[in-house]
Amino acid sequence: MNRIRNYATLFLTAGMVIGLDQITKTLVRANIPLGATWLPNGWEWLAPYARFVHWYNTGAAFGMFQGYGWVFTILAFIVTGLIIYYYPQVQDEDWWLKLAMGLQMGGALGNVFDRLMFEGRVTDFISVGMFPVFNVADSSITIGVLVLLLGVWYKEILLQKPIGAEETPAEDQPAEPAGESARE
Predict the structure, then answer these.
(1) Which residues partner with 51 through β-bridges?
(2) pLDDT at 3 over 80
(3) Distance separating alpha carbons of residues 44 and 162, to the nearest angstrom
(4) Where are the domains positioned within the chain?
(5) 124 is catalytic
(6) For residues 100 and 89, is the Cβ–Cβ distance under 8 A?
(7) How far apart are the first and last CA of the chain?
(8) Position 61 pLDDT exceeds 80
(9) What per-residue string of b and e applies to 24-49 under the rule 16 or more CB within 10 Å gives b?
(10) Is 138 a catalytic residue?
């Protein structure tokens, strides 16, 4: 039963990412022509900093490695298989690792869905400054990596003992003879 609950958490996290990713991409494909930019009315001042742009790429997240989408499709299936295999081995107190795995799996599968349905292309639409255009799946993968790194860093800090922390327990310390401190 615990294994089912573990997998339910993984698939729920990944499913929420895939759902949000696909809903936003569908809205963009239906409402913004390819190459066009959109901002809500009254938000035009935001255009130099952030905007929605209907774009696609055939590479990795953030437009890297164009034309190698098939490699990332295969890689996404391998990573998904590894996550599913290793997920039940993660201890419950490492919730941050479980969250990171769900975010990464959801992001990878969200982009794979696009590649399989749209001739190897992934719909991107979030444009911030001069940064490459990205989508919810790309963001989820990035956030998953950050959660993983911060979790590992935090756990390492908790495991470190401060210098001088190795004290002997009170019951192992010799008792101070009576009156000894009075003479000092």
Answers:
(1) 127
(2) no
(3) 52
(4) 2-157
(5) yes
(6) no
(7) 65
(8) no
(9) bbeebbeebeeeeeeeeeeeeeeeee
(10) yes
